[in-house]
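@channel anyone free to eyeball this complex?
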Amino acid sequence: MAEIKGYNMPDELYYHEEHSWARVEGTKVTVGMTDMFQKEAGDIVFVDLPEEEDDVSQGETCGKIQSRKWIGKLVAPVSGEITEINEELEEDTSLINSDPYGEGWILVIEAEDEDDLQSQLGNLIHGDAVPAFVDQEIARTEEERAKAE
Amino acid sequence: MSKEWRLFKNLTRSVSTAEGLAVDDTLPQSVAHHNSPPILHLYTFVPSVNVGKYQDIEAALRIDRCKARGIEYNRRSTGGGTVIMGPEIVALGLGINVDYPGLKKGVGGVFESLSRVLIRALHAVGIEAYFQPKNDLEVNGKKIAGLSAASEADTCLLFHTSLLVDFDIALMTDIMNTPVIKLADKGYNCFSQRMTTVRNELGRNLSVAEMIEAIQTAFESEFAIRFKEDSPDEWEEKTIRRFIEERYTKDEWIFSHRHPRARMGVGQLKTQGGLLEIYLSLSGGSIENVLVTGDFFSTSEDLHKIENALKWTSARKESIEKNIASVWHDEMIYGVDVSTLTDAILLAKQNQVRL
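replying in thread with the prediction:
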């Protein structure tokens, strides 16, 4: 588990700039929201999920996440068919806050083709690029905060 | 030269829920896909009530009472709870890119940035309001405006506010299905202690038009922009019509079942400080609303602070405790401590029933 500036960003995961993460096992991709997202958003109160068997494309908004009175987006990090939804979230959305990379997983996407999946992963943030992504997100927030004050 | 934003201002008539909400939904679409600068929509609704996108409307409202009173009901596309609207309540819709300079980033940041504008507007008419994290504006511990938002097209968001110029508490208690309604006279007391209006604070009849003017000016100062009064163009008119036809006049949208289960519970706990009586509305695993009442000593400002810290947070014990502790000070409720108050809330949770 890599901790960067107070946020857990596990090394093995791929990150979309809209803060969804992807855990890849062959063509099976488990998706959730980052620790940075859940810390920023606060308590998640509802997740509006797509149906199993829906097709999604990389970068497409495939769900909505409500924290307090804000409704944010769940963006599909890769393309494929949704094969599994985390039903535990129906009863307890706080799993996204308490365990964003474990019990708080949101859905599973099955990619059609492994080569195609590999090329899509190239569009995501991974490995050495993650610290810079976190820095950039923190800087964006701080810069605007400073401007506003 | 300052930047120009568009202003859709409607002072001539109060609009239906379908029309007002459809125009609002068009704002972020237009900014994202139609090359529009930010658009501010200032208007009023006919007497009506709207619920949050993920609220159970049948649990939140007494639909039969709305019908009997001729109160329109609908579902908006932003988050949060039930909002009463009408000709004396300013409705504000804003479509803006989240990366707009001067807009603080992130969920909390956007709410804070936009609340500054409203604080400035209220200051201009003589009211000192402040931001009550995460989503309200208050005056002396009483709510005067509520804020909600949704991230919509691309990086553009829709931001909603309702600002109470005047308010009919009797109407609210009649049409809303909140736990306190079960005890009518207590209900009045609870709401009047927790809400206020522009006219109440000023002690005079400030017009809705004057309030709208103040909000417009506050936006211009806060973001160093000027407004061009405008109306929807052809593309926008078409989008508005589509939202009216496909969303705001459709039962599938208004009575949507995409929401967490709504439950409510009442808990009574005898303590050294007196009787604690808790009214709790739950939305799935989260607290949608909580009212702390009883015969203890405290101030309405302190109680409101506690209630606010718990709204839209997890109903787990450790979360309740943590959130109360985050605002707690000594003798906030005389003779009661954080863990006793947590126990009373958990008792209400234990007594929950489905609405």
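from a first look: Chain B is about 40% helix and 25% strand.
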